[in-house]
Amino acid sequence: MTGAAGPLLVRDRAGFARARAAMTGRVAVVMTMGALHDGHASLLRLARARADHVVVTVFVNPLQFGAGEDLDAYPRTLDADLAVCAAEGVDVVLAPTASEVYPHGTPSVRVSAGELGERWEGASRPGHFDGVLTVVLLLLHLVRPDVAVFGQKDRQQLALVRRMVADLAVGVEVVAGATVREPDGLARSSRNAYLDAGARAAAAALPAAGERAREAAARGAWADVVAAAARAALDVPGVEPSYCVLVDPVDLREVPTDHAGPAVLLLAARVGGTRLIDTLDLEVAPGAGPAPSGTAAPRSHPQPEVP
Ligand code: PAF
């Protein structure tokens, strides 16, 4: 369906239904809010490898922005997005208006993200994940894909989409794409465009925090020490940490202090007025093991290195 001219751009439901009817074989979707960058491009390649047709949605979803957030300022770069999609062999770009997505106005019936949606990112952005899941479910209904590809950087979003698909028996395979990073390790994000030079330099504290956590985890440090090592790296001028925690990879609850095995560092910070998030998969090496009850903990408990 892709021609030399690039993907078919569709702005409305009826046009998309016609394009969808012409697709045979497996269909993959990558949902985006536009301002596509290398991170999105890697998701498009993953989608391309898994399906016969790739659909990209571009929609800045008002439901997931709170009062005072950057809904109006969010970058809208459709021509550049189409060029990225053309380079990655995308078949159809669905870039609907808000009235096409929500023809009856702001939906009064929504998906509730539940308790997981209220922690971490959700604690700072009440209702954010309800808005995300509502539009994700709606777009899944419109696109009817076999595969939906989401980035690992937005780990809580990914976990909630997986949970919604399981809880509500949505027939789609969810595939996670690895985080793509700048040369200094900063995770690619459309919001990086907001950072001026000073903020951009300060933002290097986020990947540095991940690196400190990885080192501590490799030493077999306790979970609270791993998280503290990361927090120490965020303690630099211009960075206001929001949360920085070591959590279970599936339910995103904080792991116990004596945890060994896979874990995920979740962090968010405001840098130069821009909220940035990052996530890192870690393997916490086994230490001396948890303390027998009533005794002092024998496990190695190294202190975080303060930069
Ligand atoms: O990750 C995003 O860009 C958005 O949250 C999504 C999944 C496109 C829903 O609006």
Entry summary:
The longest helix is centred in the middle third of the chain and has 16 residues, at 128-143. The protein has 2 domains: 8-177, Rossmann fold, CATH 3.40.50; 197-284, Pantoate--beta-alanine Ligase, Chain: A,domain 2 (2-Layer Sandwich).
Which structural class do the helices and strands define?
Answer: alpha/beta
Helix amount: 25-40%
How large is the radius of gyration? Answer: 21 Å
Q: What is the top-level CATH class of the largest domain?
A: Alpha Beta
Strand content: 15-25%
Main β-sheet, in a few words? 6 strands, parallel
CATH architecture of the largest domain: 3-Layer(aba) Sandwich
Look at the structure and give the mean pLDDT: 93
The distinct bound ligands, ions and cofactors come out as: pantoate
The ordered H/E elements are EHEHEHEHHHEHEHHHEEE
- Name of the CATH homologous superfamily of the largest domain: HUPs
Poorly predicted runs are 288-307
Number of helical stretches of at least 4 residues: 10
Tell me the CATH topology of the largest domain: Rossmann fold
Give the CA-CA distance, first to last residue.
53 Å
Shape, please?
globular
Number of domains: 2
